[in-house]
């Protein structure tokens, strides 16, 4: 991915600036925010100048061309790099390329890198990078490398230049600068694909399927299949010959006959380059180009692109590009390198009601499909709704008119809002309020749930699935209340009228102290409530209530409640067991071993109430050794919220649902939104394409000689597989029950290895994780455990 870039002398950037584009190791989404004319687009354009060898450098009027450059700092996962080198024959001298990355990464791990650079501007830019790298997590998993292009079009290393070269000369035997630059440049261009969609580019040009950029984001399996066909052998004149070689032979024969006819002439056809034959890669692009040149995108009512409004055209660009990238993510093999997508102002010409959904689609390219995604925007409404990623704010210094750039992690940017220029925070809520009101007015049957954070949304989306419900995290309780008041005001003043079917739930936690919630009285379509776990059934016959805080006569019962306290206890226990087992914290493992499940159906573990006579039940109890140490488990849950939410979601979605015992939180949401049947049904294992009888075999990569097979969408541990007879108490209950049946079977065979058993028959499993856990007796990550056995 791109970590950041150094830029000097391009458009409004008159001096060297380091711009951070990735401050969150867990997300590849970056939004560049600012008013028109401040230099947002220049960032994406300058990256395009390097990657796609654009000829025009838009020089800053106060800069000297020879001093201008853009240099990009890349970070690449070591495993992905190794896999890419292994699987790509186009990269020459792979060992040398790897040594470049190893030593360049060492250079960026050096302490006080900035002292080697002369000049205040260079030194300050390097210091900013140095400070950022120092605080970066998981650096050991990545290689770092830099390369760029100067204003005259040459590949360059500025501002690192001689300092980096001197360092590399001391580390690499017979280091050659030109060889280093050309080798690294070739690798970067092979590994990364940068797709940039500017505002002014014509929609029909962007979406034309023969467009080179569209071909680059197309599922690579298409081009691979064309190559495969061209390389297939056919029988001709008693010989087996590939289609491509047959074409070469026929064309060569034709050229020979032409030259024979020119015997009496002083002219002849001869090759101009060393290359004499056409190869498959020459034809693939031409075939795709010619085939798709006859296909054009239209609306389903057959309206041509050029007949649509500019807003509809912009929406088409985003929907088609995201569709292609999703298709590629689902169907393509690994080790093809990385695609980086950059879109200028996706909200341009959009109806305000569509803006939120457009940003949601683009953010999902990173969060769901792993593509690094850059956008520029001056729609401030994205601030409260993006949970992970990097926010880069570009603005003008009012006194000097120089560009100022600040970058924040979306996860905690609200903690630093005092550093924001002007009134960005307030603008963001005005924009978002307008967008949400527009969305509701255009979708009169739809409901919204506004919650505090991304983990709340993850839990809710694992339990709720309905096409007319959107769940939106807005960055904390204070923001939920602020949006409630801002949306309430125009409705109460009758400036805006919502349909009676529109419902919005504003959902917050209940803290351990009573709060003056300071919210308006709610219009009929709005409901603001705090989560409350109860110790007796509510008036709605539920153990959970969402207490209306805009109604002074609502329940005064007040027990500290987070969303983690009102989940399915069985699933939450399995998720918590898994996360604890894979952690390196031995204390939490020891404490958790002492706790066991109660028969309480909800997941609350701690009890705190203003009225101690109203403490709810808990889903864990101590066996005796750590009866006063519940707070250690609570603290672990609080510090692993994101990981727990992700694991819980995976486990819950695959669980068989008991529709006679729906989670009380889901029932409360149905009551407030006045909807039925919103519970997510069990997600079947995804099976690409139609069901077939093809069987895939996987083997374990650990000390056990175990095999798993996938057959017609089902997963089995195979007969003869070894499993450990030892078991951690924190594994999932389902896996533990399956293992007990195996171990208690009198006929089970013993392995020569100590404490290892051998399966006497195939065993059906719920998932790959389930199969891995049965083998090892501990929570195990299937992605790291199973390796596909090639036929």
From TrEMBL:
Gene3D superfamilies: P-loop containing nucleotide triphosphate hydrolases (3.40.50.300)
Any single biological process term in GO: DNA synthesis involved in DNA repair
Database matches in Pfam families: AAA_15
Coiled coil, from the record: none
Endonuclease GajA/Old nuclease/RecF-like AAA domain: residues covered: 1-378
Stated name of the protein: AAA family ATPase
Annotated organism of origin: Bacillus wiedmannii
